[in-house]
Design a protein that fits this description.
The protein has about 600 residues and is of the alpha+beta class. About 40% of the residues lie in helices and about 25% in strands.
Length: about 600
């Protein structure tokens, strides 16, 4: 949304401040400065960016503002959605959709399925939400999805500890009586906060007298809190599981079956619509941060050495509002760029990523997103997951600011590689070579009879472990074997194997194909967040009558397509109205009879 020249004049010094800090971050990285120096510079850059963005939102044209309370009143009155278990006082971060909300959500998902799954010939799956712990350990969720929290000792209210400490120290720094030395110490702690553990944070709480920001009550010691909902699968309690935090892992673990279904050919895409669960410490902002939410995710598998897309030319001329990492570092606003130019210049990493960004843009506009309140923001280096090549978020402007509603990332081969390592099952595809090549093969061949006799029920586990050994591990194993016995590590123990039980074989093999682990381009849609943005973008107040509010939704997602309005209550009209209603129903036109 373009700002006036007067607004840009006010923003100029803030933009310059961001650019200056962005240049400093680049210089520090180029000069190989210490990690703490870079972190401090990045933290200051984030602060300046936030000040700039807040000012930009403040200077938005008046017509872009609206009365959120009126909209929320309309949503409740028409029962689009409301807080779950409201008669019991409600549960924060959980919502029930009413008739209008259900119909609108179903229409959005139907439009999504037509736009992506059917048009792109994707392979749709519907996987269980209950996920065994080993799957989420391999994907990194068990380790990564944990935060430290503290509780108010009197009322039990919980707070995320890193956010609480940061807010408290910023408040300390803002006080006039605070010395420069204390301010410097607080700034240093804020920068290092991500790397602190339970003990360090506990010491900071004590030193700076961190209390509940709501009541002023004392707080508990830090508690580790996993954001995934934990449970146990089966009555024994031996198999720990979680409600899935995303739908993607179901597609990854079924990759081999999907590849077979697609006759072994790349590229192809898997898709899934379903609910995910995150036990947020402080859910807020309506549908934007909740504990149970619907996702629609795509995993597009392609050759890592060829990320071109056969249909990219169809979308190359699509003009989009792109907020690149370079724009952010320079304090510039988002730019209108053709996706073809963005890919050719290297701003967007590859054609497949660019293709899906353009398709996401087209879908969002089709279902009613205001294109002037849509931008694609590129993740900066410090935000990017270590395995990601490039990542862009489709952000929608709401009264809460810019909200990430769709992520579009090049995840490289991370997930398939992790699951391959954990299971020993190769999640890879075959790529035909231009010419056959000869390969040296080294493998451990088990002698099943003596292994079975010696280890009984563990024999299968030993055979599987031998098949997973890497070349280096085989060489070490062989060296040990020459001394009479070699050690093999299993899941919970180690066994000794003798030369009569195993043989190390080396031979040459001519191969016509090579095995590749595909790269993954992942568009991930948060349906609840998109719905909330749609409500804001399409909320209307009738001119001249501010009490009359309504939503001007596109027909493709509107819960009701039309209304049947009898001009009279005369019973003679009843058969005609019933007949019209039946015909509309037969033609799949949702409607309401106003009687």
């Amino acid at each position: 949304m373009a700002l006036s020249p007067e607004a840009e004049k006010l923003l100029a010094p803030l933009r310059e401040a961001v650019k200056e800090q962005g240049d400093l971050v680049r210089k520090l990285k180029a000069d190989k400065a210490t990690e703490i120096e870079v972190k401090k510079a990045v933290a200051e850059l984030k602060t300046r960016k936030k000040v700039l963005e807040d000012k930009e939102l403040e200077l938005m044209p008046a017509q872009a503002k609206f009365d959120r309370s009126k909209m929320e009143d309309t949503l409740k009155r028409r029962f689009f959605y409301d807080q779950s278990f409201a008669i019991y006082g409600g549960v924060t971060g959980q919502f029930d959709f009413g008739p209008m909300g259900c119909a609108m959500k179903a229409n959005i998902l139907s439009a999504w399925r037509n736009y992506f799954v059917l048009e792109e010939h994707m392979l749709e799956v519907d996987c269980t939400a209950l996920t065994p712990e080993p799957v989420l350990q391999s994907s990194g969720h068990v380790e990564r999805f944990a935060d430290l929290m503290v509780k108010d000792l009197k009322n039990g209210e919980c707070f995320r500890l890193d956010h609480l400490i940061k807010a408290h120290l910023e408040k300390v720094c803002a006080e006039k009586k605070t010395t420069e030395a204390t301010k410097a110490e607080c700034a240093d702690i804020i920068v290092k906060l991500d790397g602190y553990g339970k003990e360090e944070m506990s010491e900071i709480m004590k030193k700076f007298n961190v209390v509940s920001p709501v009541t002023g009550n004392d707080l508990s010691e830090p508690i580790e809190f996993n954001l995934m909902f934990q449970t146990y699968i089966g009555p024994s309690g031996n198999l720990r599981g979680f409600l899935r935090p995303e739908t993607a892992q179901g597609i990854f673990v079924n990759f081999k079956r999907l590849l077979e279904f697609n006759q072994g050919k790349l590229p192809f895409a898997g898709a899934q619509i379903g609910n995910s669960f995150r036990n947020e410490i402080s859910p807020r902002s309506g549908l934007i941060r909740v504990r149970e939410f619907t996702m629609a995710e795509i995993e597009h598998f392609c050759d890592p050495s060829d990320k071109s897309h056969p249909k990219f030319a169809r979308v190359a001329e699509t003009t989009m509002n792109l907020y690149s990492a370079a724009n952010q570092m320079k304090g510039e606003s988002a730019k209108q760029v053709k996706i073809g130019d963005a890919v050719s210049s290297g701003m967007v990493a590859n054609e497949t990523l660019g293709y899906f960004m353009a398709r996401i843009h087209g879908f969002l506009v089709k279902i009613g997103v205001d294109p002037n309140r849509l931008r694609f923001r590129q993740h900066m280096g410090n935000e990017m997951a270590h395995y990601a090549c490039d990542c862009w978020d489709a952000e929608l402007l709401t009264s809460y600011g810019w909200v990430e509603c769709v992520g579009c990332a090049d995840r490289s081969a991370y997930d398939l590689t992790q699951h391959t390592k954990a299971t020993g099952i190769k999640l890879c595809a075959e790529k035909k070579l231009p010419e056959p090549v000869t390969q040296q093969v080294t493998e451990v061949v088990p002698n099943k009879a003596p292994i079975g006799k010696a280890f009984k029920k563990d024999a299968k586990m030993i055979t599987e472990a031998l098949a997973k050994l890497s070349l280096d591990e085989i060489q070490t194993f062989e060296t040990e074997l020459k001394d009479g016995e070699a050690s093999l590590t299993l899941a919970s123990s180690a066994v000794k194997l003798t030369p009569e039980m195993v043989t190390v074989k080396r031979y040459e093999k001519k191969v016509h194909v090579e095995e590749i682990i595909p790269s993954v381009i992942e568009p991930s849609f948060g349906i609840g967040r998109i719905m909330y943005a749609l409500f804001e973008h399409n909320f209307m107040v009738r001119e001249g009558d501010e009490q009359r509010t309504y939503f001007s939704l596109p027909p493709v997602i509107a819960p009701l397509k039309c209304a049947v309005l009898p001009l009279s209550s005369n019973p003679d009209f009843n058969d005609l109205v019933a007949n019209i209603s039946a015909n509309l129903t037969e033609n799949d036109v949702s409607h309401k009879i106003d009687d």
